[in-house]
Amino acid sequence: MNDRRDAGRARAAGAVSDAGAAHDGGAARALGTSPEASGAREPDEAYQGGSGAPVQAPILIERARTPAAVILALGLVGAAWLLGASAARIADSRGTLAVTGSAHRQVRADLAVWRGTLSTQAPTLRAASAQLAWCRERVREYLVARGLAAGDTMFSAVSTEAARGRGAAGEGAAGGFRLSQGVEVRSADVARVAAAERGAGALLDLGVPFESQAPEFLCAGSAGMEAEVLGLATRDARARALAMARQGGGRLGRLRSARIEAFRITPAGGRGAAPMVEVTAAVAASFEVR
């Protein structure tokens, strides 16, 4: 009888011990500590109730925290992008208007250049050369008689070629020699040069084979004239751009770029006593339009 009571007490004490151990293991899992630290069971196993069945312990993951510096950097990048987009929109709103301006002025020529050619032909080279020398002297005398200085006349080198003609022997027979020489008169006395060119027929009357070209009347002081006419052309370009901008409802801004399209000095009116030249300039310019 006493033995049965002792056995029953032993079984009850074992059940109480098992229940306490299970309770301790569950508490250890709830606190996030390992069963090994609590002294209950193996590190990766826990026991549910008194059945002794092993289950996987829960794993706690710590949430990552974003540093404040990263957030601040992202904010600065976004603000810079917005400012850049705004600046691009402002730049696009400023258009460009391209125009071409021109200007011209007539001024009295202060330099005349007259060119011509002397040519002779003879059976022998000596005879052709002698004829050319005679013609050269007649040209000098004619120009001096017209009031031009001897130093204003220049002769180029003599060009020589064998002339071929039709003789008794047929096509290709020797025809002698042909000589030619250029003549250039350059003088600031433009009126005298013009008069000499108009009377060049007198040389033909003397038997001088002189082939005359039209004289060129130039403006030797074109450097200062060039700056003046280019300035007028640029002013004309701005006036044109201003009129176009007003008609379109815009407002003309600063000059962005300009380049010279053309600059010419051409004869402006006959070959009178006071020959004129026309100085012409064209400027391509672009302006900002708001």
Structure description:
- The chain is an alpha+beta fold and 290 residues long.
- The protein folds into 3 domains: 2-55, no CATH class; 95-108 and 220-289, Protein of unknown function (DUF541), domain 1 (Translation Initiation Factor IF3, 2-Layer Sandwich); 111-217, Alpha-Beta Plaits (2-Layer Sandwich), CATH 3.30.70.
- Helices cover 41% and strands 33% of the residues.
- It has 7 helices and 11 strands.
- The chain has helices at residues 2-30, 35-38, 68-92, 125-145, 190-198, 201-205, 222-247, and strands at 46-47, 54-55, 95-108, 111-122, 153-155, 159-167, 170-187, 210-212, 216-218, 252-267, 276-289.
- The strands form 3 sheets. Strands 4, 5, 6, 7, 8 and 9 form a 6-stranded antiparallel sheet that branches.
- A hairpin with a 2-residue loop joins strand 6 and strand 7 (170-187).
- The radius of gyration is 55 Å and the shape is elongated.
- The model is unreliable at 12-51, 57-64, 85-93 and 169-173 (pLDDT under 50).
Short description:
This protein is of the alpha+beta class. The chain contains seven helices and eleven strands.
Supply the key terms.
290 residues; 3-stranded antiparallel sheet; 7 helices; 3 domains; 6-stranded antiparallel sheet; 41% helix; Translation Initiation Factor IF3; Alpha-Beta Plaits; alpha+beta; elongated
